Amino acid sequence: MTVNMTKGQAISLQKDDGGALSAVRMGLGWQAAPRRGLFGSRTREVDLDASAVLFADKQPVDVVFFRHLVSDDGSVRHTGDNVVGGVGQGGDDEAILVDLQRIPVHIDQIVFTVNSFTGQTFQEVQNAFCRLVDETNGQELARYTLDGGGQYTAQIMAKVHRAGTGWQMTAIGNPANGRTFQDLMPSILPHL
Amino acid sequence: MTAELVRGQNHPLPGTRLEIRISAGKPIVAGATLGDDRGRVRGVEWVAHPGAPTLPGLEVSRQAAADHRLAVDLGALPGTVHRVSVLLALPTGGAGPVSFRALAAPFVAVTGLDGTEIAGYTITDLDAESAVVALELYRRQGAWKVRAVGQGYAGGLAEMLTDQGLPEARALAAAIDDAVAGGLARSVSAPPPRPADDARVRTATQDHAGPARTQPAPPPGPAPADPPATGGPVDYTHPGRQTTAPPPPAPAVPQARPGEPARPVAGDATGWSLEERLYNQVWGMFEDLARTTAAYRSAVDFADSRREQELDKVLDDPRSRIGGAGDAARERARAKHTDLVGQARAALDRDLAQLAAEADVVEPALPPAFAAWSSPVWHAYRAPMEIPMAVRLGDLHLPERTGLRIPMLVRLPLERGLWIDSGKALTNHVTDSAQLRRLAMDTAVAHAARLLAAYPAGEFQVHVIDPAGSATGALAPLVSAGVLAGPPASGAAGVAAVLAKLTQRVDLVQMAVRGGAADALPPDLDTAEQLLIVNDFPHGFDDRAVTQLRYLADEGPAVGVHLMMVADREDAAEYGPLLDPLWRALLRLTPVPDDHLADPWVGHTWTYDPPVFPPGSRILRQVLDRVATARRNGGR
Fold first, then answer.
1. Total number of domains in chain A
2. Average pLDDT score over residue span B50-55
3. Which chain A residues touch B303 with a CB distance below 8 Å?
4. DSSP of B50-62, one letter per residue?
5. Residues spanned by the domain of A64
6. Is residue A192 very low, low, confident or very high in pLDDT (cuts 50, 70, 90)?
7. Considering only CB atoms, which residues of chain A are within 8 Å of chain B?
8. Beta B117-122 vs B3-5: how paired, if at all?
């Protein structure tokens, strides 16, 4: 049962039977918007990069992105850089696996961001989404579709954070500007 | 708001406690130099580098890495320091790139302690440079600023340090290269992430299928006899694909009872054979232990720093000085610390228990090449028909759980030679150097015996150079079993003869491989892998012999000639930097437990435990006798 999330909405990460989730996948998909007019078939490639920043009490502790694909503790893994997008219609172009049980005890929030590495703004991207999937059975838990593109090159998508003994996901969906996650730090901090 | 700097641009710094983050995509060296009011580096004590990573107010990484975080406290620097230059350099001597042209533009950022980026700078337009001054932090009218510099040097660190006015620039640059190479030599190389298709199946015939197929090429075997008879001149079979039978199924993992972790099973990993599964499982355990320990250490560091901050806050708050409020706040900070560390420890213990249970089932299932000498499989040892994937060179453990030991498996054929350090620079050093030398030689014999036993009969030859005959006692098991290629060479003439023979072999095989003419080799050439044990280096070695050793270390592994140096590096100090490449080319092992190896994922320092025989065990003798018997019957 998938939830179509809206900005700011939070859902608790539980299985349908109420059990705690053990592993989730944050999937990201996008397509380059087709050009209009002549040479329309020459769509430009858009390289979006998904990153996950691990925070302990609002301090960044580790980051998983295309140059550091596995967090030092091994709980968060990036499946690899996709530099063109749009491979599978509706499939994930980049994915970050999170083993919720293995996240170090001091990490309380994981923020997922998307940056345009090639510099195009989100105006040139279509059908972009992020979705959270229960990795153990492939069920989609939540999907958040990016609104129509704007003049920005990055977006802070969502965060997964501790709530009681379990985890919650909150959709953030705030635009920002920057080429890699480092540029986004000031924009992330208000959402912690 | 982040300032994205361009070359030459400067930016004010809001505080004095900063972090500098560097990402380059490939391992690079990061360091920093301090400059006085005229921009000069006054001496080597003003340079932070991997060999001397800490200065007051400044710390850099000990290793080359793709990402660096340098901690800087400008307030703690000496008052005479007016400038801090952050420098990047490429590690020398390895297989890595020699200029920044081959790298993506490195990115450097100055951040506050909370991670907020103050200024960032992407160093573009680098070309033939192998060292670059990335940023400088400088004092201007009492306040600190950062400037993007991006000044590269094609002459590397030496040229850069000379430019900064350091008198001993060249010597220091060499010392830095050395420290970095030491760091690289200390690291256990990662297993190949996913073996290419033709590397998956390893059989004796396919390993000798052709001389020009793989790089580095295996020594050409009896190639003409081996290709499958397909009836025509063209062989359509894929050289590395196994067409006969699918791999045996993986052992079934029993269902875990609810509420319990799954019981571990030996061979619970991917692979085409049980051997490959066990190999991958051991490497998986190695990675899991590295990562779970990283999680624990990171949590404890965080708990420590949070407690310090909270205690500082209590001290700074005037209200807390009166009454019990301060004590209560302090107590709360300590309780939070204890609580978090307790949780982290519980998570670690849970993971360690799981890994220990896995080790308990994996260890007895290991085949001889992977097994400890104490394993019962050695009693049933028979010379193998095929070369195994890897051999065990010892064990690795971390201080969090010293009893949990990971077999250190390295791939065969060996990619680099071994150096058994008989020097005094060991963590747990034995004071008596004669005793240490004997231990080192015993360890070398244990490694050699394992390699002899791992290879099929006659496919591995061991030569020994013992110029003064000082290792006769340690070598006795090899000599009396008759498994050496010849008696240990002694005296100048003996040393020269062995080295000349092996050097000639490397030359011949290299020529044949390059020329694609494996069948042109002389018929009496021994096609087995060769190991040369060198004791007492450099005593009794002339310059020519030293040159030949270096040649063997560099060129030998690709054509199946390996070095095992049993030496104290200090004894060879008179050769100066001349021999540095030799040591760098070898994997350093120790005869006593020693903290010098790093894992490829997180870079923890691991304690290496050399192989030991159970007390009173006759297993070495027994295995070597069986190797000798198999050779006699194998008819080589």
1. 1
2. 81
3. 106
4. TTB-EETTEE--S
5. 3-32+45-191
6. confident
7. 56-62, 67-68, 70, 72-75, 102-106, 178, 180, 182-183, 185-186, 189
8. parallel
